[in-house]
Amino acid sequence: MSTDNNPKSCCTPTSVREASTPVKAPLVYTPGLAPSRTTIPLPGGTFLMGTNYERGFPADGEGPVRSVSLSAFDIDTYPVTNADFAAFIAATNHRTEAEVFGWSFVFWSHIPEERFEEVVEDTVAMTPWWCKVPGATWDHPEGPGSDVKDRQNHPVVHVSWSDAAAYAAWAGRLLPTEAQWEYAARGGLERKLYPWGDELTPKGKHLCNIWQGQFPRQDTAEDGYAGSCPVDSFPPNGYGLYSVTGNVWEWCADWFGTTFSTSQDPVGPPAGEAKVMKGGSFLCHASYCNRYRVAARTSNTPDSSASNIGFRCVGKANPKIV
Q1: What is the distance, to the nearest Å, from the Cα of residue 19 to the centroid of all Cα atoms in its chain?
Q2: For residue 125, which of 16, 227, 288 has the smallest C-alpha distance?
Q3: pLDDT at 320 (0 to 100)
Q4: What are phi and psi of 274, to 5 degrees?
Q5: What's the confidence (pLDDT) of residue 35?
Q6: 124, 180, 195, 306: which has the fewest Cβ within 10 Å?
Q7: What is the DSSP track for 3-15?
């Protein structure tokens, strides 16, 4: 197993994988067969995207702040859950790329200590807290012997961008563009760091699921969770969206780039090597990766998967991106 030297792999490691079984062409799903999910209609309009935050990551392309206009669209109230994804699997027999490749990345402290040597095949050289675990999949998130029976309302993880796009196609929807995701995540607020304002814990109250303690050794779970949490664990933003920061990263439709030229319904570069991810995860911490801000962004290859990557979908006016 090998991984690249992506400096953002603290957030999500990038896979360089060979399939354990031949990779088949993507299945084509009949849209509109998914169970109904709660969505939020947004009228679109113009907003200020990006940030010039001094503690941000300019190399990620977080700035400059720019005016962006969007057509109307609707977006899932919650990230896609394990229960939602189970319905997709049952209806389509889709095999996730973690299953096809035979492994996925799991954060080290979520693997039972007594089973660590048994289930971990390798670790990432520069970020050894990421473990290569054969058999880690969406329904076995810590590898063989684990399951999601008690996590039906948690966001599905170990899904690649390609898996997320396949689910969206089956549901008759699409993945959000980065601009749509950020517009929705801001909840109507302008130039704020978080969906609720500029203070991470107003009046000492935790409003998202991120890391507390000393990363990567000790997560005190002061927010109530070490690992993912139910998608409705924290209050929604001003538009009614839940879990838009922290918990798990969310795939976007766009290819990743750091230059921006289109102000009306931007869709990112026409091609690339990695897809945009937004929102941060339960592993983000101010000392190492404060990418739980709404303007923060990272990327990963479309076939990568890990225990902190999920997604949500949009509909209506979303441009088609392939």
Answers
A1: 23
A2: 16
A3: 46
A4: -140, 155
A5: 59
A6: 124
A7: E---TTTTTSPPE
The pLDDT of residue 319 is above 70 = no
Enclosing domain of residue 47:
39-94+153-316
- Quick one: tokens of 9? 């792999």
Instruction: State the number of CA atoms in the 13 A half-sphere of 32 facing the CB.
Output: 0
170 found inside a domain: yes
Residue 217 lies in a domain: yes
Rounded CA-CA distance 176/165 in Å is 10
Q: Which residues have CB under 8 Å from 22's CB, separation 6+?
A: none
Question: pTM of the prediction?
Answer: 0.90
pLDDT above 80 for 73: yes
- pLDDT at residue 23, as a whole number: 46
Q: Estimate to the nearest angstrom the gap between the alpha carbon of 228 and the chain centroid.
A: 12
Q: Write phi, then psi, for 180 (nearest 5 degrees).
A: -60, -45
Split into its structural domains, the chain has a count of: 1
Q: 165 by DSSP, 3-state: which?
A: helix
24: tokens are 């088949």
Of 115, 155, 151, the C-alpha closest to 135 is 115
What tens digit of pLDDT does each residue of 25-71 get? 444 445 545 556 899 999 999 999 999 999 899 999 999 999 999 99
d(CA 122, CA 133): 8
Closest alpha carbon to 33 in 74, 79, 77, 94: 94
65: amino acid identity, one letter? V
pLDDT at 1: 32
Position 74 in a domain = yes
- CATH classification of the domain holding 62: 3.90.1580.10
- 248-286 burial, b if ≥16 CB within 10 A, otherwise e? bbbbbbbbbbeebeeeebbbbeeeeebbbbbbbbbbbbe
The span from the CA of 290 to the CA of 56, in Å, is 8
Q: What is the pLDDT of residues 58-72, one digit of tens each?
A: 999 999 999 999 999
Classify residue 128 by burial, with Cβ atoms within 10 Å: 0-12, 13-18, 19+: exposed
Residues 129/50, Cβ–Cβ less than 8 Å: no
